[in-house]
Amino acid sequence: MVSRALRARRERYRAAVDAGAADMALALADALSGGHSLRGAVMEAAAGLDGSPGRELRRVAAELALGARTEDALEAMRGRVPSHGLETIVAAAPAQRGAGGDLGGLLRDCARALEAQARLDGEVRAATAQARFTGLIVVLMPVGGALFAELASPGYLREISSSFLTAWLAGIAFAMQLAAAAAIRRLGRVRG
Q1: CATH architecture of 2-120
Q2: How far is CA 46 from CA 11, 18, 39, 94, in A?
C-alpha cells in the first residue's frame, strides 16, 4: 500500500511538473532574451517559478551552483521527472547549441506547442467524460440491481450464494464486470 501511495504521489508530481513545462520554457526563454547564458537562465528562471516546475529548476540551479555541468544537471532533471514537456525543453538546448540559432525563440515555440498540447488534452478529457461516466454506470448497474433485489426480497443474495452453480455464475459475472471496468478505465485514459 505504501509503494502504491508513493507511486501515486510521484505521478501527481510528474503531472504537475509536466503541466508547468510551458511556464518553465517561457521563463528560460525570457532569461535567455535578457542576455543570460543557458546556465544563468536556469538560475534566473528558478528564482521566478513557483510550484513543482520551480522546485525542479531550483534543484538544477543548486546542482549548477555546486559545479555541475549544465547538460548534466538538465539530464538529471529529465531522469528524475519523466515528462514529455521536460524532455522537449532539455532536448532543445543541445540541439540548438549544435545547430546554432536562437534558443530563446525555440523555447518560446516549445512553450506554445506544450500549451496547445495541454489544451487539446483538456478537450479530449471533456469530450470523453460522458462516455466514461456512462461506462461506469453500466458497470455498476448489476451491483445496484442485486442490492435492489435484496431489498425487495431479503435473503435473495444468500439464496444465490447457497447453490454452487449460481454462486459460480455470479462470480464469473462479477469478474467480467471488473474486467469491463478496467477496460473502460484504460480506454478512457488520455496520454500526453
Answers
A1: Up-down Bundle (1.20)
A2: 22, 16, 11, 20
